[in-house]
Amino acid sequence: LSLGLLRLTVALALGAMAAARCPTPCVCDNLRAHVLCLNGNLTAVPSPIPQLTKKLDLRGNSFTVIPVGAFLDTPYLTHLDLQRCKVERLEEGAFRGLGRLVYLNLASNSIALLYQEALDGLSSLQQLILEGNRIEEIQPGAFGHLGSLTVLDLRANALVYLPDMVFQGLQVLRWLRLSHNALHVLGSEAFAALPALRRLSLDHNELQALPGEALARLDGATRLDLGHNPITYVAEEALAMASLKHLFLDHSALQDVAPEAFARSPQLRTLDLRENQLQGLPPLAGAGGLARVSLAGNPLLCSCLLRPFRDWLTRARVQAEGTCSAPPALRGRPLNSLRPPEMRCDHPQLPPSPAVPSEQPRVAGSGQCPQGCACSPDFRHGSCENRDLREIPRGFPRDTRLLDLRRNAFGTVPPGAFPGLKELVSLHLQSCSIGALRPGALRGLESLVYLYLTNNHLSTLAAAAFEGAPQLAYLDLDRNAFTRLPAGAFQLLPNLISLHLQHNAIRELAEGDLAGAGGLRWLYLAGNTIRRIAPTALAPAKMLEKLHLEGNRLAEVPTAALRGLPALSELKLSRNPIMYVGDSAFLPVASSLQHLYLDNMGLERISPGAFAGLGPKIRSLYLESNKVSNIPDMSNFTGLEILNLRHVPFHCDCQLLPLRRWIDKLNLRVGATCGSPAEARGLKVKLSTTFQTCPGWGRGKAGGASPDKTKAASKPSKKKRSGKSPARGFKKSRA
């Protein structure tokens, strides 16, 4: 009895002590280890909070900044709620010490930027809610420490683009929510390194085309939400997602879908195309698993032109939802109730139906739609695509934001071609046989951000062509006839961010070619015939982050031209005939480079000092399909997330033993195989038995790729680690 009384006394004392430590504006539930400090106008995290607290609710306060180590006194927290706290900034290390936290809610604050170390220390976090902030930019690496995260909610922010590898480190993420942002552009590797992702929400953004290249990285995703985006067309094989089962493209601006659009998504079961501008669909070849297509709310023209699609539905046993808008005799009829003889083409031209927007001019803003074009007042879009027009039409509504004039035959864009369109943001002039963009052609387009001139006949451009469009940020000149960069053409474009000149016939980059492009961040020059880059050719673009030079005729790494590019993070040299990489080839950009592509070059030799200066910042390295038999020391590449060594004929002898040991330590699929000797050919490097006869084989694991570092690397390093390295601390390698 006395022992029981003693225990009760101690418990009451501890409870009293805990209660005494509860901050004045808060309510502490010590039995459940919950603390609530709601709507208290607090400007700092209250203190002292009971150390054993598991759930801390701080909603409705006024913190502005979450400082470094703000929660070090509550290391047992599992749930932290900071909604509506007017937070503007998370300092690096703000949540350090919260290694048990599984739920963090930062919704409805004013955070504008996620810094690289802002979420450091949250190794157990499973749900991160950042909905309703003002996030405009996410620095790659911001999520690098969140290896347990399964749900990331970034809805209702101000994201305009996603750079490559922005979600690196999220190895078990299952649902990524990016709805209700302003996303225009997705990097081709934006979703790389998300092997567990099952659901991606990109609805309610500003995507004007289906981002197929970025989505192709998501092998395991089963659901994709792309509704409420101004996507007008889904091209052939636009979507290559091997596991995709449910695709939502509802409430967009779709006017056409190619027959083979989903041929590379063989598991697709449901396709939601509600509330678009589709008059019909072709038979969807390749979508063999499709079970349901929803076309409700589309202006379906149930004539003989729709009969092949109707027949395909029957053959493939696909359920379809939708009703006819025309011809008048079939208006309101469900699609699945039609019989082929009813779907006639008695009249070459049916009378225009009010339900078919593409056939009826509409009033929007303060102007009517030009004859033969379609205008959507809801989306503020205008389209005259593929109308065989010889002159650019006029008379679009003044509030038009997207103008689609693709696949016409304009030949020339004359001065003042787009009068009254001060609000125009995106202009599509692809495949229009344009050979000249005259001075003043864009005059008055003061809001223009995106200009697409792909697949035309342009060979030169004058700066005066861009007069009056100072906000232009994205310029696409792929597949034209340029033999050199249009020197001086960018003088009037102070906001130019992205320049596409891929698949032209450019032979060299000369000094002065990029004059005026001081804000350029992404330069795409793949598929040209570039043999030479002058040492100062890239100098004006001091903010350059991406340089794509794959598929050219460079015979060496353009090291001299890389000087003066302190922000370069991605360099693609794939498919150039570079057979040798010399010492310090990447030293000028060693402090910033994160992604390096050296694949498919016929590379025969890499100097031992080729990677001098490179180290933990390198996130991905592509060396596949080359002819080298060994590679330099990469033991300090501790931040690697992607390493591709496939189709490289390694000579598996004792000189390769350090590389073999280093691969053992990586939690990466590197694909390294032996090319020789004969008895090892075709075997994975890590499985080859040829190393068992090497001196020191029986010693403990070592890192590094050079024999003289084997012994040192087998000992624990005393240097401070960043915690980002996937190359250590794993029980099993998957190389």
Automatic annotation (TrEMBL):
The protein's name: Chondroadherin-like protein
Domain LRRCT: 298-346, 649-695
Oligomeric form and interacting partners: Associates with collagen and binds to collagen fibrils.
Position of the signal peptide: 1-20
Basic residues biased stretches: 716-735
PROSITE patterns: LRR
Organism name: Ciconia maguari
Cellular location(s): Secreted, Extracellular space, Extracellular matrix
Residue segments, region Disordered: 323-344, 695-735
Segments forming domain LRRNT: 21-55, 368-402
InterPro entries reported in the protein's UniProt record: Cys-rich_flank_reg_C, Leu-rich_rpt, Leu-rich_rpt_typical-subtyp, LRR_dom_sf, LRR_TM_domain-containing, LRRNT
Known function: Potential negative modulator of chondrocyte differentiation. Inhibits collagen fibrillogenesis in vitro. May influence chondrocyte's differentiation by acting on its cellular collagenous microenvironment.
